[in-house]
Amino acid sequence: MGAKLKVAGLLTLGAVAGALTTIQFQAIARGSQTALPLEEMQQLAAVFGMVKNDYVEPVDEKKLINDAISGMVSGLDPHSQFFDKKSFKEFREGTSGKFVGVGIEIGMEDGLVKVVSPIEGSPAFRAGLKSGDLITKIDDTAVKGLSMDQAVKRMRGDPATKVVLTVFRKSESRSFPVTIVREEIKVQSVRAKVLEPGYAWLRVSQFQDQTVNDFVRKLDEIYKQEPNLKGLVLDLRNDPGGLLEGAVALSAAFLPAGVEVVSTNGQLADSKATYKALPEDYLRRGGQDPLRKLPAALKSVPLVVLVNEGSASASEIVAGALQDHKRAVIMGAQTFGKGSVQTVRPLSPETALKITTARYYTPSGRSIQAKGIVPDIWLDETAEGNVFAALRTREADLEKHLNNGAEEKDEAREKAREEARKKLEEQLAKSKDSIKPLPEFGSAEDFQLAQALNKLRGKPVMVSKSVTERKAEAKTE
């Protein structure tokens, strides 16, 4: 049992963020409300009255209403959601790229919070936290046993408040406390570096408000270092998505002006749309086109896009558009398969409804819902093979996911998942040491990045030894 729990914990290393979504923001159309079914509404009112009057202890009326709305929406699909005051605040922080905290990108290792990277200029950065540091306690609470979300919530708080982190630094074999004053942090959703003369790596971890501007800024830095760039790796691994306009803009940076990037189709007239590589299709609030600053050479530079099972939604839009227009070689693993668009409609200043309003389609008309983008070249996670790939959750694994026509149960995938799970449990049962986590993306040990670089340089690529492609599903009528 312990091994099973540990395996489940290991999966968070490559887990997709909870807000898997491609989103649009819309004001609610008050005039378009439909007539309510009278009999069912009377039943709802009757149940509300019974719970309010007959339940064993008093129940808050607002909570009852909020729970009723949540239940109604959660029964639709895995991505529709009612936001109460707290969850709406967290959601807006996620898309804005701003939050109050200490300023670290984290992972999990041996049940502890691992500092992947301190955000430059943040309180954690100024306090001297380093990549690889392990956080063992947050104030007086031991980190062992906490989920990543629980640890994050304890480190976040109000501006100007203090949190004490107990840090274990492996390189120095010592533990020490660090007192950090929380402040507003701006998340860097884009990272980049020159790998070697002529070749660069650019990673987008999420599509937020500032992602396109950060993308342009990082590319500018790359071209200043390497004016004659010979090849670029666009890393979208474990990118859970975000703003639709950001995905259109990023695609437009590499594609000829005016070509189709993605189309959407749903019940509402507004949901039937085609988005092209044009400023009017990716500028949400007007203003100047941030892509105007990019060098013309970017439209033709050899490009590899890295994806994996955690690449979802907006990142799948980018991969699909670049693949359909034959602008890039897609390498890695089959993506998550979230081919739906959510619209966020405010219900009040503090609450909102996130509801699925459309399916999206790649330029060639493919719906990747519950299937994903199949890479042109399959890669394993490491030179030795895959460790966690078969175990990662995908759209097709989620309860109540939208179908893509008549789905068939993928027996081969289920078998691969079960075999991978057993293998990990056996390894954990035999050894007291935990399984070595995968290397950080962009590091010297990043096997998939090394293969992408080989592809750009015209060198041999070590392709996957264990391809497990999900079955193609029947097209929607």
From TrEMBL:
Coiled coil region boundaries: none
SUPFAM superfamilies: ClpP/crotonase (SSF52096), PDZ domain-like (SSF50156)
Pfam families reported for this sequence: CtpB_N-like, PDZ_6, Peptidase_S41
Keyword Manganese part of the UniProt annotation: no
Domain PDZ: 88-156
InterPro entries: ClpP/crotonase-like_dom_sf (IPR029045), CtpA/B_N (IPR055210), PDZ (IPR001478), PDZ_6 (IPR041489), PDZ_sf (IPR036034), Peptidase_S41A (IPR004447), Tail-specific_protease (IPR005151)
Signal peptide (residue range): 1-19
Compositional bias per record (Basic and acidic residues), positions renumbered to this chain: 405-435
Keyword Hydrolase attached: yes
UniProt-annotated stretches for the region Disordered: 405-441
Keywords: Hydrolase, Protease, Serine protease, Signal
CDD domains membership: cpPDZ_CPP-like, Peptidase_S41_CPP
Family designation: Belongs to the peptidase S41A family.
Record's protein name: S41 family peptidase
